[in-house]
Amino acid sequence: MRAIEFDSNNRFTVLVTRLLILFGVLFLWWLGTHQKWLSPFFFGDPLGVAVRIVDWFVTGSIYRHLYTTLVETMLAFVIGTVLGLACGLWLALSPFLATVFDPFIKAMNSMPRLIFAPIFALWFGLGIWSKVALGVTLVFFVVFFNVFQGVREVSPTVLSNTRMLGANSRQLLRHVYLPSATSWVFSSLHNAIGIAFVGNVVGEYLGSEKGVGYLILLAEGVFDINSVIAGILVLTVFALILDTAVSMVEDHLLRWRPVAGQTVATSA
Fold first, then answer.
1. Which tens digits make up the pLDDT trace of 146-179?
2. Residue 49 DSSP label
3. Residues 116, 243: one domain?
4. Going by C-beta distance under 8 Å and a sequence separation of 6 or more, which residues neighbour residue 263?
5. Alpha-carbon distances of 113 from 109, 246, 247, rounded to whole Å
């Protein structure tokens, strides 16, 4: 009996369905504001939002803000990922140190890290590094716990067999621990992208002179809901673009994984 499979030819159908849902939501939004079921003052006007986005890109007024936010996000994402990967591997391979640092890590993870934004602004100023520092604190723990768990999930049987074949510690790290952690790492990176954006935008809210978060803050100050929604949509689109880039790298590096739905199950 064949297992349930997803036909790759249905990708076009999936795309069409997604577009129908998107345009359906936009139509309902437009209809609600056009018929005065929703107040445009509070919910914005979809046509006004579209005009604002086009105006930003045509005039180029958004580019310096977008560039600043993307640079902050990428720096926070990369630094937080590297630190989370290194610390996760280090503690996962050192049971004694993992036990020692366990309460400290749990305590730091339980802290509402967004409250550190004004502290980082005092330490690093109102430039990009205060936003990067906040983003790093958010990304780090997401990656750290996934790497730590991924290494801990390595099968003892696989480790025993690899050691019997004469593998040393470096070979175990390269051929056993890292491949095991990689899937967990990429699983966390999809969340880390969005979290990095959140950290940087919050930092821009609390003190900055440029960035999309700063642009949204200015719009809120004059009750320009169309610009607020436009800024949110721009951030969302670029977050999706970065997430797609992570997925492409993941597909390239994890080609060895079996593809779901390709296995054929048989029964007597």
1. 888 877 766 666 666 666 666 666 766 666 777 7
2. H
3. yes
4. 3
5. 8, 25, 27
